[in-house]
Amino acid sequence: MIGRYPDYDVLTAVDTWDDATRKVVLARLDPPGPLRFFDAAQEPVLRAFCDTVMAQDKEPRVPVAEFIDDKLAAGRLDGFQYDDMPDDRQTWQIVLDGLQHTADERSPAGAGFAAASPATREQIIDDFANGALSGGPWDRVNVSRAWSVCMRAILAGFYSHPWAWNEIGFGGPAYPRGFMRLGPTSTTEPFERHGATAEDPSDVVRDGQLDG
Q: Do 59 and 153 belong to one domain?
């Protein structure tokens, strides 16, 4: 991966993990299998949503869609849900139908969400984040809470992957290695790296310094 830690690879620490930890982490690098929960019509909408919201516009991609699909297919839910919301599995079905519905209304000739322009997808997602979508499937769910449900799963999937750890300089599992330096946040462990740059990411985004 590239970014603040261009030369960092968390897998250099693989020998410090125990067998169980190593097996779990390395399995996340295996080629993803076919989706089991979402059907063929929903898959492109799911992938377009995950890629757009996480700004994954080229390979290699963290397989966020596969993480969500596997979680829902296996019924590994979070153990809680909002009292005015359906089961997370149903929420995801409604959200994908809603994204398709909104894109059909906004795209030329009703091209759908996956085929919509990046700008159209980003605007729909922005409206979703602000709870500003309505009509069709959206009337069956609390839109703001649906956004929270989806982003919780997307972020969990993305940041469970070693490629994402490389991007943020995360040292990976600390078992059984542990931590030695529990002092100031500027103190790094031997296996940690300082970033190649020191800009605040929020300032970079606000000032438009990202390359297109």
A: yes
The reply to whether 156 and 168 lie within a common domain is no
**Cβ(107)–Cβ(115) below 8 Å:** yes
Same domain, 51 and 102: yes
DSSP calls for 82-128: -TTS--HHHHHHHHHHHHHHHHHHHSGGG--TTTS-HHHHHHHHHHH
pLDDT digits (tens, 9 = 90+) for 45-101: 999 999 999 999 999 999 999 999 999 999 999 999 999 999 999 999 999 999 999
Q: In this structure, are 51 and 129 located in the same domain?
A: yes
In this prediction the pTM is 0.87
Q: Say how many C-beta atoms besides its own lie within 10 A of residue 7's C-beta.
A: 7
Is residue 188 within 8 A of residue 87, CB to CB? The reply is: no
